[in-house]
């Protein structure tokens, strides 16, 4: 028996890295019977059958997992947005942040295409950058054609398992190529009619950057919160979480309730209006979600 980590899943095979060797493994039928799907990032025990091949026998308990992309045991996330082409969306950024915060994944925000932005867009983006930094997030605003800021991002990857997240066309693949030119990942063009990029990443696999493993994931532009409860949502907005215990009601949703510490902080300018508006929008999505039986 050998131990290893799944670094790629493709066409029914799970590629497991063990002591610098990669084995193409199949999953045992017992996983299907238990409705368990091995994920990229899983730590597994496998039996080697032939040279470079094997069968996965056991999957270790996961510390976290994402459904889309399907990946497990993540330390941190780099959430990539662009200032233009496609235009920056604070709403979409907050969706990503809520999802990673809910999984206890440490996020870093990277805003790309500074070189393509107008003066007005740069000023607006700088304001957003300062706002997210005030909340406590690391934020880098950069040009993908420049090395400036790349070293800070590269250090973030060191010895960690990282997932790269963001909608299509924001420059995730270009960013990875800049951090490790040996990767030569195919990058897509922007569809001007749709205002978003073409998907260039078809499956999830780990890439090596600065002694860390990075999952380049398929781009997407919509996210929902299928597992989230309404009363838990504010815990995933960092600046609201700090004030939850100061509300009059223990299960306060920070919407219509009186003596709400979060609403007071919004009125006082301590919480950004747009962040609170996004919270209310997500809250309504969760409340109006059809119950699943």
Order of helices and strands: EEEHEEEEEHEHEHEHEEEEHHH
Low-confidence stretches are 189-201
Number of helices: 8
* Largest sheet, spatial ordering of strands: 10-9-8-11-15-14
Rounded mean pLDDT score: 87
The CATH homologous superfamily of the largest domain? P-loop containing nucleotide triphosphate hydrolases
Structural class: alpha/beta
Report how far apart the termini are.
40 Å
Would you mind describing this structure in some detail?
By secondary structure, the chain is an alpha/beta fold. It has 3 domains: 2-60, Nucleic acid-binding proteins (OB fold (Dihydrolipoamide Acetyltransferase, E2P)), CATH 2.40.50; 66-216, Rossmann fold (3-Layer(aba) Sandwich), CATH 3.40.50.300; 230-287, Probable gtpase engc, domain 3 (Ribonucleotide Reductase Protein R1, domain 1). Helices cover 26% and strands 26% of the residues. The chain has helices at residues 29-33, 90-102, 119-135, 150-157, 172-179, 238-241, 261-267, 273-287; strands spanning 2-10, 13-18, 21-27, 43-48, 53-59, 65-66, 71-72, 76-82, 106-112, 138-141, 161-165, 190-191, 196-197, 205-209, 212-216. The chain has a 6-stranded mixed β-sheet with strand order 10-9-8-11-15-14, sandwiched between helices. It starts with a strand and ends in a 6-residue tail after the last helix. The model is unreliable at 189-201 (pLDDT under 50).
